[in-house]
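Quick review question:
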């Protein structure tokens, strides 16, 4: 406990080093805050925060969401690294994509088959899952843009793609558990 308290008394939240519009990657490289790399890991962080909001709306515990949040931190660390070989980064668990797919398949077994597009919404938790899904899709787009100009582990793009599918399915499952009927999109003719 003493060590933790000591760290809190030494570490300041503000450093003033970003006041010029630049920030540092792990490794020390400084980039503008609107650089595509910063956008990529910043949007992964937004996804993580949106999942935190989703968790606050849930009546039951979804342990896999906390695991997903940890995985998003691992991904963020990789994206926030300047690629120096001597850096110690968290390991990316390649099995986590399979874990997401298995969870999607398990939830889908109890859901009505999709025969139309559905409007995001439903319960507050269902709507929060939809919002997290759309932020995750944006994170995926940002990482794809980054991968066009810099090396990015392909796992990260696959993981974000599968995570957005998981969040979509989870929103449907949450609304089904809340006995809220999905609203189908009715295009104007």
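Suggested answer, residue by residue:
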């Amino acid at each position: 406990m003493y060590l933790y308290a000591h760290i809190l008394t030494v570490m300041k939240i503000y450093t003033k080093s970003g006041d010029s519009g630049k920030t540092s990657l792990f490794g020390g490289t400084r980039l503008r805050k609107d650089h595509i790399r910063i956008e990529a890991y910043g949007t992964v962080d937004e996804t993580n925060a949106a999942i935190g909001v989703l968790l606050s709306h849930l009546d039951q515990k979804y342990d896999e969401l906390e695991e997903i949040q940890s995985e998003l931190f691992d991904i963020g660390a990789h994206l926030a690294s300047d690629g120096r070989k001597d850096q110690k980064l968290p390991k990316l668990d390649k099995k986590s994509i399979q874990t997401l797919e298995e969870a999607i398949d398990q939830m889908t077994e109890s859901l009505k088959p999709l025969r139309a597009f559905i409007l995001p919404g439903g319960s507050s938790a269902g709507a929060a899952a939809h919002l997290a899904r759309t932020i995750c899709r944006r994170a995926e787009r940002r990482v794809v843009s980054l991968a066009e100009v810099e090396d990015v582990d392909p796992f990260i793009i696959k993981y974000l793609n599968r995570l957005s599918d998981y969040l979509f399915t989870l929103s449907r499952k949450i609304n089904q558990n809340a006995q809220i009927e999905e609203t189908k999109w009715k295009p104007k003719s």
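Why it works: The chain is about 60% helix and 5% strand. The chain has a mean pLDDT of 86.
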